[in-house]
Amino acid sequence: MVNIARRRALGEFLRKHRELASEPVTRKQGRKRRTPGLRREEVAQMAEISFAWYARLEQGKEATPSGAALGRIADVLRLALAERTYLFHMTERVDPDHASRFADDVVRNTIASCVSSISCPAYVLDKYWTLLFWNAELEKLFSLWLGGVERNLLRHMFVDPNARTFVVDWELRARQLLAQFRDDFGKHFDDPKMLELVHGLSKDSDFFRRIWEDQQVLFRDGNLKSYNHPQLGSLTFSQTTFLAVSEPGLKLIILTPLS
């Protein structure tokens, strides 16, 4: 639930950008306006929402905007990418039209190069915990994972039988991993792809389904991670996780060897 201070901040943000927005092209030229920018009713009409509902948003009153409705408001107000992202963060909603800048080839190549330059096992996950980038050191460590068909960390952990022997204290680690994922899930619970991921895991793993019902939540931690590697033997790492500033859904994970 968006608290009172957040609702007020959201209302002030919308009001200011409405006042800065361009007049609709259908407005007759030469007609003098009493107020700058767009009127509330104009925003509501162009965003295909009710005037009363939009007014409540600007007044900081209780309202439950959908991602689709917020997207239309952002389009009407012609918000820049950073402003649009701020709007969705303020309302704790998922932008249905979000286009990740990491889809750009130049950006992807830059990130891949950075990950490759790290001397320890390192990899990048998206908000669905699917592997996007990794380095050669990770290939040596997670050869069982990367040699299989699964690129999603959760599906590897709960569906791939190799994970049960590779990960030390697999059941404890699996419970911790799922509690950490729920924190991300809560930020994107209205994302259809996120719901599809959970549904598929619940269908394919009885253990996942039982543990998911426990409703446990943890922040991603820096605890020690131990593995039984088929060639390299017992290995222990300290895990460090970084979040991208402009793309909070992406995580860079670095495993520093301790043994």
Textual characterization of the structure:
The protein contains 13 helices and 5 strands. The protein has helices at residues 4-20, 40-46, 51-58, 67-76, 81-91, 105-117, 136-141, 143-146, 153-159, 162-166, 170-187, 192-204, 206-212; strands at 122-125, 131-134, 224-229, 233-243, 251-257. α2 (40-46) crosses α3 and α12 (192-204) crosses α13. 23% of the residues are buried. Residues 25-29 have low confidence and may be disordered.
Summary of the model, kept short:
This protein has 259 residues and is an alpha+beta fold. It has helices at 4-20, 40-46, 51-58, 67-76, 81-91, 105-117, 136-141, 143-146, 153-159, 162-166, 170-187, 192-204, 206-212, and strands at residues 122-125, 131-134, 224-229, 233-243, 251-257.
List its salient traits:
alpha+beta, elongated, 434 Repressor (Amino-terminal Domain), Beta-Lactamase, 49% helix, 5 strands, 259 residues
Would you spell out the secondary-structure blueprint of this structure?
Layout (H helix, E strand, L loop, with lengths): L3 H17 L19 H7 L4 H8 L8 H10 L4 H11 L13 H13 L4 E4 L5 E4 L1 H6 L1 H4 L6 H7 L2 H5 L3 H18 L4 H13 L1 H7 L11 E6 L3 E11 L7 E7 L2
Antiparallel strand pairs: 1-2, 1-5, 3-4, 4-5
CATH class type of the largest domain: Alpha Beta
CATH architectural group of the largest domain: 2-Layer Sandwich
Mean pLDDT over all positions: 85
Oligomer: single chain
